[in-house]
Amino acid sequence: MRRPGRRGIAAVTLVTALTVALGVTAATAAPAPPSWDDVEQARGDVQATQLAIARIEDAARAAEQTYLEAARSAVLLGEEYHLAELALEQAEAAAGRLEQRRDAALDRAAESGARAAQLAAQLARSGSGDLTTALLTGDADDADDLLYRLGAMSSVGARSQAVMARAMQDKNTAEALTAQAELALAERGRLADEASDSLAAAIAAAEQAEQRLATQQIMMGELAAQLASLTGRSEQLEREYLAGLGGDEEPAPGNQAPGTPSSPAPSPSSPPPAPGPSPSIPPPSPSPSPSTPPAPNPPSVPAPHAGAVATAISFARAQVGEPYQFGGRGPDVWDCSGLTMQAYAAAGVSIGGHSATRQYSTAASRNRLVPYAQAQAGDLIFYSTGGATSGSKYHVTLYIGGGQMIEAPYPGKTVRIVAVRSYDRVPYVARPTP
Questions:
Q1: Mean pLDDT within 229-242
Q2: Which intervals carry biased composition (Pro residues) (predicted)?
Q3: CATH for 265-430, among 1.25.40.10, 2.60.120.10, 3.90.1720.10, 3.30.70.2330?
Q4: 336 is a catalytic site residue
């Protein structure tokens, strides 16, 4: 075991700098970890040792929670970008359709205008007087007025009136579609700027989360060394112990959303736990708020397709250990919705695109949402602020049964298999396969 030297002020300065870098404010920070002087003085004194260990543990929890806050912010901003990108794609498609309609309308207006001009020339040769001459030689505003007058003349037959009316209708249609196309192009430009801004914010947030994780790991090394000095165990064991304390499975006490349970997902083969007085067995999911859409009818959602589920889970398992990257959709970097999208794509199933929100809404539109208590392997588990069913979903995972899920979690982490978290979990899962 490493024997620490007397670091005194230097150790305090390091801890203070790391605390500031992690963004822990004085109002919310846990008690400061002990200095090396404190550690050395505590050895041999049971009460002082316990106090020093408690301060180390509190510092480890605070560091982990600070990182998790940054990580959750990053994935929230990442989902905002995915939604902005989707809106841009839809706007581009709409603008493209309008441009095609506008171009076709301009062609029709040119053709009908040519027929109208030909008719006017014929009428001029037949002696329709100054009216048709003015039509041929006048400016655009005069031509509009004269076309209406020419169409009303008793000397013009029904066929001529139809030609003139079609020319005016095509002209008006072309002008209206041109205006709509211009508005669509402007909206496309606005959404492009919005998507660009969202992308920049998401990338910056991901980088900040990774920086906080790196800073946290430096702090954890220092804390593990202190703890090893107090307990006599190896630094590696103490580092693993401290990592488990912070735990990104749930938020620190006091940060959990009201009414959110803390139990992992039930095994798909076991019924949901019955409500009872014991606080250790909460219901499997919070009840929807009155404004939440009514729960889907479970019997209307068929059991998952075993072959597709096996393929999707096998694909996701093969990615375990690969790094998280914002916007990643493979082949060796992933974000949450990129992993679930590609896992089911491997089974030939489309689940709604590269967005957790879109994957949830796609399942809802297909009537494939199932209460969380009835989750089966292959279902998608979603997370949103407060577990809300409405609004955006910032995270999606693949349930594999036995209370476990595969996920691409946060910046700085890798694809992993973990117990299902309840914090911010949406009370319905999506069943992608019919």
A1: 86
A2: 261-302
A3: 3.90.1720.10
A4: yes
Classify domain 1-248 at the CATH topology level: Helix Hairpins (1.10.287)
Half-sphere exposure of residue 83: CA atoms within 13 angstroms, side-chain side: 17
Name the one residue in this structure whose structure tokens are 């990053």. Answer: 74
pLDDT digits (tens, 9 = 90+) for 194-224: 888 888 888 888 888 888 888 888 888 888 8
> Residue 306, by phi and psi: left (phi above 0), alpha (psi -120 to 50) or beta?
alpha
**Do the domains 265-430 and 1-248 match in fold?**
no
Distance from C-alpha of 370 to C-alpha of 381, rounded to nearest angstrom = 10
Identity (one letter) of the amino acid at 428? Y
How would you class 41 by CB atoms within 10 Å of its CB: exposed for 0-12, middle for 13-18, buried for 19 or more? middle
Domain ranges of the chain: 1-248, 265-430
Say how far apart CA 278 and CA 408 lie, in whole Å: 33
Nearest to 400 by CA among 304, 273, 331, 261: 304
Q: Which residues contact 359 (CB under 8 A, 6 or more apart)?
A: 337, 340, 341, 351, 352, 353, 380, 382, 393, 396, 430
Which of 40, 322, 336, 354 does the annotation list as catalytic? 336
3-state secondary structure of 317: helix
* pLDDT tens profile 387-411: 999 999 999 999 999 999 999 998 9
**Look-up: residue for tokens 């006091």?**
254
**57, 322, 354, 395: the active-site residue:** 395
Catalytic residue, from 40, 222, 322, 407: name it.
407
Q: List the single range of 26-35, 129-138, 247-256, 371-380 with lowest mean pLDDT.
A: 247-256
* Confidence (pTM): 0.64
User: pLDDT tens digits for 153-208?
Assistant: 544 566 677 877 888 888 898 889 889 888 888 888 888 888 888 888 888 888 88
